[in-house]
Specification:
single chain, 280 residues, alpha+beta, seven-stranded mixed β-sheet, 14 helices, elongated
Amino acid sequence: MDESFLAERFEEHRTHLLAVAYRMLGSGSEADDALQEAWLRLSRSDADEIDNLGGWLTTVVARVCLNMLQSRKTRREDPLDDLEPLPSADGPEQQAVLGDSIGLALLVVLDTLAPSERLSFVLHDMFAVPFDEIAPIVGKSPAAARQLASRARRRVQGARATVDRDRQREVVDAFLAASRSGEFERLLTLLDPDVVLRVDAAAIATGAVGALGAGAVAETFSGRAKAARLALIDGRAGAVWAVGGTPRVVFDFTVSDGRIVAIDLLADAETLGLMELEVQ
């Protein structure tokens, strides 16, 4: 492929790539460096063999940024030193892309994340990259990449708004008590009408099934969950079923306005191994 034509194709994706790199690094100069490295790798590759140039470049930029973040951590740099404006974001299109959901406060929070957490969260939540594509970049399974993004998301959300952990714990505790005693009506009062029960593949293998709506979810749990124990899951109230002290199933609750809006049953061993669990 002619180099001038290849350069034109690269420029077509520059704004998007710059947005990815800036959110990953929080540094204008480093974002520019990441794009320069991506261009060098592209110029040395057989571009004619690349079916999806935008996807290929996004992956390359992500890998470069991950390496830079890991190097930054080993140098023990003050994270605030790296938070700087993006000097090349002077065009209206670039300003619009970079200004969307990004700011100093968010960059500060992102800088507290582990590199793999930051990459998984940024690529999935900000740029809708599937976990199947994120997984090989961070060297994890898709399920593990999902958990990395989930953990990062919780920390970001926790920084944006103060979570009433005590209230959430009360709701989850009440739900477990009502479940064990078979109080169907009480369960309905604790569940959002559109609550969803999701189960991962490992949980399905144990016989668990998903459900949608307060009635279906309440019926699923009524008289059950007797062995589940209240726990903190990555700092949030949830529940764990353990055998011999080893967690086998995690009940991950999402609570909003005093009601449970989602329950995720997670039994994948790798996913559970990435969680911070504290049985109460």
